[in-house]
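Our platform keeps sequence and structure together, in a single record for each protein. Nothing more is needed to write down the fold, since each code stands for a local backbone conformation. An entry from our holdings is shown next, in its original layout:
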Amino acid sequence: MEPSASLADAIGQNPKTREAVVRKLECHAPQIEPPDAKILKPDNLRFFRRQALVSALWQELLRPEEEAWQQVAQNLEAWRDFLGPASEPVEEKPAPRPAPPPPSKKPRHGPRSENQALQQRLRQCQEERNRLQDELGAERQRRQGLREELAETGAERRAERLRATELKRRLESIAAASEREQLLQTEVAETQRQLHVLTQKFQILEEEREDLHGVLEDHDRFQQIPDEEIPSFRDRPLQPEEHALSDRLGALADEGRTPFRVLVVGGGEPQYRHREKLEEYAEVVGFRAHWRMAEYTSWHKEMDRLAADMEQHFDALVILHWNRTTFTRKARAICNKKGQKPCLTCHYEGFVSLRQTLQECLRQLLTLHSQV
């Protein structure tokens, strides 16, 4: 590619360079008003003067867009026959006034008369020259005023463009600030959510820590309770309340009712040794009982097992009071969910307290059965 073509291609592709060229061209634009683009059709080009077509091309060159310059290149190729050879733009001048009529021929009166005629003609030419100079000066002033007005218009246009650019920049900064504000609000909401979750976890841990601390204290205290010797219930008479419960349970057994099943949860090793006595007591009274040790550290792992047992294998639940408070609350919720089954807490200070709790549990089971 030739250097001139490379330079023209670089000017045409760079927006800043095009804008600089347009600013230079604004000061040299033709003074002829360009024709309307709607009538610049191929069939009408032969009716326009070359200066009008050049003014139309110049108007497109004053636009800094690359598409406008490409359109100029296409018009130059299409209007080649109507533009003719390149030449300096012809400035339109006002039509000259008609020359003064030639002096009437008078009869010569010798060299003196001819000299006077020449001097008079010279004065007329000087007057005409002065008049033309005045008109030329006025035309120059008019053109200078137009150039100044054009320069002022260009300056106003550049100022408006700079103002529009500044407003656009401020608008973008405002939009960016709103986006940052929205991002900060999202982060604040997420932080508040995390804080709420952590607060709940902390409260749960504090509750479990205090709960476990109390359980361990009770467990240590009940470990110090001396072993209790419980005689056999087979050779001992029952109390009147137990006789009444046994008779009612026996009546239900005669009707084909399956004996009630009671689950006892909790206690330490000294108390757990009484499970055989519990089963013997249940057999004598007329129900079934099962004693299960409590899980003090990982009690939550036993909740699913407890829910399945209360749904399929047991009719009531007795919780020894040194179980964890959280476990007791969850166990009560399971019993309520499985048909409002009785769930009692026993303050175990000996097997007598367990017997009393079991009697109350049986009374509740008989009441529920009678309501059904």
Q: What stands out?
A: Confidence is low (pLDDT under 50) at residues 87-93.
